[in-house]
Each structure stands twice: as structure tokens, then as C-alpha cells.
Q: What sequence folds into this?
């Protein structure tokens, strides 16, 4: 059981994530105005690697990975690159809050992967909530597609990539310390980006190519990595202090901070249809979290009853 005194730091760290994470999007949007999306993506991993290496050294954490951990880390880095690229490509032209609202279908994608790929038991209520959540995403996508074209679907790529990222993180956490995990993801993510950018440059791609930033755009690219590192470490340690069921509802606070930063930096504010979609996605997500709690309590009840019966049984 999590000690009550440790829940408050966990909540504070999760709220810190929700405040800092939209700054990744702000820095990405600023950088992508002059720097190719692929280069901004690479910059995120280079900056993250430079920031995390001293911590891994200071903590004496191992650099080497076992065979299974290496493959899991490689997969985690690959889906992280997919998620990052898609979101930067989206916010390059879309309002941050709109792109984030669409990406918030990620919990529903995790549920569908669990049900149809991993064979996990998922009840009709949670599946229905997922369908409703996707309908909410369409409320955001439709006006965005009309205005920005196919780029409105990029946040769905982010949601899919981040859903796989979460699942791989859960599996990898049994083998690798969270701090070392961030460094490995940064190194492998950069190694994945480099050949992709080389190929893109060779074929004359405008967005998947390597191009050195100039002037203030160096700072914007570095801030993408800085905000990513701080926010993801904040979330990792939040989950160490408090249960995920306690923290999950707080994640929707990120929509508020993303809307605020989008308005302050770029003058963007979601329209009425987008707010309807955000409301549907949020309500569906919170219901999904509620059902997870109910199911978790139902699973614990038989075990608690068995333990109680064993304690009350006469000694033999």
C-alpha cells in the first residue's frame, strides 16, 4: 500500500508534468517554423541524452542492457520517435490544444491493443467509452481537417505511438532504472533519427532532413529536449510515489495548460466544436479510469476475503 505521506509529492510531480509538458509543444512549434521537423525531433533526443548522461554516471547506473531489455528499449525509442515526429508535424501548423485533444485518445488505443492484440479481458462498458472517446476526437479532427488538411491526422499517430510507448515502458521498467531508461531512449532515438534524416536529405524531403538551426532556433530546439527530459522524469517519479489510478485523472489538467500556453504564445484558442470534442474525450477518459478502479477493487476483494479467512481460521 502506498503511504499517504507519499501521495502528495506524487500529485505535485504529476501536476508539474502537466505544466511543463505543453512547453515541449510550444518550443517545438517555435522551432518548426524554420527548422525541419525531423531535425527538431533529433534535437529532442540529443538534448535529452546530454542532460541524462551525468545523472546516470552520478547514480552509478549500468549503461549496458541485457538482450531483452535492449530490444524493448529499441522498440520504446522507435515509437517515441514516431510519436514525437507526428506531434511536432501537427503543431507546426495546428493549435497546440487541438493537437493535444486528438492525442488524448491514447488511453482508448491502449485499451483496444490490450483487448484485441494481447487478449486482455475488457468489458463492454470500457469498450463503449473508448468508442465515444474516438467520436469526441472526430469533433476536433473535422474542423482541423477542413482548415489544415491531412496534417490533422498526425496527432492520431502520436496517440498510437505513445500508447505503444506506455506498454513498452511497463515491460521495460522490470529491467531498467527509470533514469537509465531515459538515457537509453535518447541514445537509441538519436540513432534511429540519423539514418532517416540522411535518407530524407538524399531524396530532397523538406521535413525529414538534417539542417542546422540558426540563431534563436538553437535555443528552441534545445528547449524541446530540456522540457521533454524534465516532464518525463517528473511523471516517472510521480508514479513512484503515487498509484497510477490516483494520478491518471490529473493528466487532463494538461489540456488547460496547453490551451493557456497556446493562447499566450500564439494567440490560438479552441473553437466551440473543439471544446465539445475535448469534453467528450475527457468525460470518456475519466469514466474509463473509474471503471479501471472498480475492476481493480473487484480483483482485490477475493484476495482480501481469502486472507481474512486464513487469519480467522483456528491454528492446527
A:
Amino acid at each position: 500500500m502506498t503511504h499517504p505521506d507519499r501521495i502528495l509529492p506524487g500529485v505535485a510531480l504529476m501536476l508539474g508534468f502537466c505544466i511543463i509538458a505543453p512547453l515541449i509543444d510550444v518550443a517545438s512549434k517555435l522551432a518548426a517554423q524554420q527548422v525541419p521537423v525531423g531535425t527538431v525531433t533529433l534535437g529532442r533526443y540529443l538534448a535529452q541524452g546530454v542532460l541524462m548522461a551525468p545523472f546516470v554516471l552520478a547514480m552509478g547506473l549500468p549503461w549496458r542492457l541485457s538482450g531483452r531489455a535492449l530490444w524493448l528499449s529499441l522498440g520504446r525509442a522507435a515509437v517515441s520517435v514516431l510519436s514525437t515526429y507526428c506531434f511536432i508535424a501537427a503543431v507546426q501548423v495546428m493549435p497546440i490544444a487541438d493537437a493535444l485533444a486528438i492525442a488524448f485518445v491514447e488511453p482508448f488505443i491502449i485499451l483496444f491493443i490490450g483487448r484485441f492484440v494481447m487478449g486482455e479481458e475488457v468489458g463492454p462498458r470500457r469498450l463503449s467509452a473508448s468508442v465515444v472517446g474516438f467520436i469526441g476526437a472526430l469533433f476536433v479532427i473535422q474542423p482541423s481537417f477542413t482548415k489544415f488538411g491531412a496534417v490533422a491526422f498526425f496527432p492520431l499517430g502520436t496517440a498510437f505511438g505513445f500508447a505503444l510507448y506506455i506498454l513498452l515502458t511497463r515491460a521495460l521498467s522490470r529491467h531498467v532504472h527509470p533514469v537509465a531508461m531515459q538515457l537509453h531512449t535518447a541514445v537509441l532515438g538519436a540513432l534511429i533519427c540519423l539514418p532517416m534524416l540522411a535518407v530524407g536529405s538524399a531524396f530532397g524531403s523538406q521535413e525529414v532532413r538534417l539542417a542546422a538551426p540558426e540563431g534563436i532556433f538553437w535555443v528552441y530546439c534545445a528547449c524541446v529536449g530540456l522540457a521533454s527530459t524534465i516532464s518525463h522524469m517528473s511523471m516517472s517519479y510521480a508514479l513512484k510515489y503515487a498509484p497510477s489510478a490516483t494520478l491518471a485523472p490529473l493528466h487532463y489538467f494538461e489540456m488547460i495548460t496547453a490551451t493557456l500556453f497556446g493562447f499566450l504564445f500564439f494567440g490560438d484558442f479552441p473553437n466551440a466544436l473543439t471544446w465539445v470534442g475535448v469534453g467528450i474525450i475527457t468525460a470518456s477518459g475519466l469514466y474509463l479510469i473509474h471503471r479501471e478502479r472498480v475492476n481493480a477493487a473487484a480483483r482485490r476483494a477475493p484476495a482480501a476475503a481469502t486472507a481474512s479467512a486464513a487469519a480467522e481460521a483456528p491454528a492446527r
Remarks:
- The chain has a mean pLDDT of 86.
- DSSP finds twelve helices and no strands in the chain.
- Residues 4-296 form one domain.
